[in-house]
Amino acid sequence: MSVKNKTNQTEDKLQTEIKSIQEPSKEKNQKKERSRIFELLFLIVFGGLILFWLIMSFYKAYAPKPQYLQGQIAAREYSVSSKLPGRVEDLKVKKGDFIQQGELVYRISSPELDAKYTQAQAGYEIAKALNEETHKGAREESIASARDVWNAARAMADLAKKTYHRVEELYQSGVVSLQRRDEAYAAYKSAQYNENVTYQQYQIALQGARSETKEAAAQKQRVAQGQIDEVEAYRHDSNVYAPHSGEVSNVILHNGELSPSGFPVVMLLDMSDSWLRLSVSEDHLNRFQKDQVFEGYVPALKRNIQFKVRYVSVMGDFATWKATSETKGYDMKSYEVEAVPLEAIKDFRVGMSVLVKVP
């Protein structure tokens, strides 16, 4: 029995050793199997991701892309200028200042204008004096002298008349000859004519100039007054005021520089009257009809703003947009579109870009 037990014990040890050898090999096989499964799943997932990326890339590459139109912000600009040429002095503004309407901006110095004003005043005084002289008529001494000459001629005419009647009576009586009678009659008529001449001269001195002459003198005075008013208007324009409230965008001339007539010395921007200016090809024009509302993105402000179309006009032939596709064998016109923002934008500046998305 002892031998048999030893044999059994030996077999058990062998079986145990065989099991101990077989179990690790099974575990290794199971681990290899699991690793293969994981590798296969990884390859499937990785391949799926690559396939998904390729599909999305092709979709994005061939999908229709939205088109953006780029416009710019513009604003009402005013030029501050004077119709009076001269040198700029007492310039009161600089770039970036905000000024109110009616505020003094600068002055114009013009010595030539002062000289013209003196000339105009002197011309007016001359015309005024001539007008008064014409309406007053001759001097009182001239009128009295003309009246005395007329009275003397009238006295001589009365004497000549009496003399003629006496000679006529003597002629009828046969005392004097016909020659003496004719001489007396000729002296009488000559005295009558002389009386009439002196009377007319007296009336001319009494009444003064003709009505046409008086009217001409009055109009000359008005012309001289008009010259003074013109020079005064130029003198008033030597002080230049802001025509509108706004921000000083540019100062072109400075103190001491010569400014021609009408030259813009200072430029003003009114940002409260700003708008968007777009160039739109006619294939997108149906989205920008008058009074239509659209949205634009302002990169400088990083926000979207609503705009309303207020003006549409065709641009010149130089702004024609040419087709680049071979399937489109025609050209399309470009249109200028102006649109105003529907809200007041505080930080708007001229030149800001606006992107408008179109399908």
Structure summarized in a few sentences:
This protein is an alpha+beta fold and 359 residues long.
The biggest sheet, with number of strands, parallel, antiparallel or mixed sense and barrel status, is: 8 strands, antiparallel
What is the H/E string? HEEEEHHHHEEEEEEEE
The low-confidence parts are: none
Terminal CA distance: 101 Å
Rg value: 57 Å
The total beta strand count reads 12
Structural class based on helices, strands and sheet pairing = alpha+beta
What portion of residues belong to β-strands?
15-25%
Report what the structure shows.
49% of the residues lie in helices and 24% in strands. The protein is of the alpha+beta class and 359 residues long. A hairpin with a 4-residue loop joins β9 and β10. Strands 1, 3, 6, 8, 9, 10, 11 and 12 form an eight-stranded antiparallel beta sheet that branches. A four-stranded antiparallel beta sheet has the order 5-4-2-7, with no helix packed on it. The protein is built from five helices and twelve strands. It folds into three domains: 63 residues; 102 residues, Efflux pump adaptor protein, beta barrel domain (Elongation Factor Tu (Ef-tu), domain 3, Beta Barrel); 132 residues. It is rod-shaped.
Ordered list of secondary-structure elements with their pairings:
Layout: H1 2-62, E1 67-80, E2 86-89, E3 98-99, E4 104-109, H2 111-136, H3 140-173, H4 178-207, H5 211-236, E5 239-241, E6 246-251, E7 258-259, E8 266-281, E9 293-298, E10 303-314, E11 334-341, E12 353-358
Helix pairs in contact: 2-5, 3-4
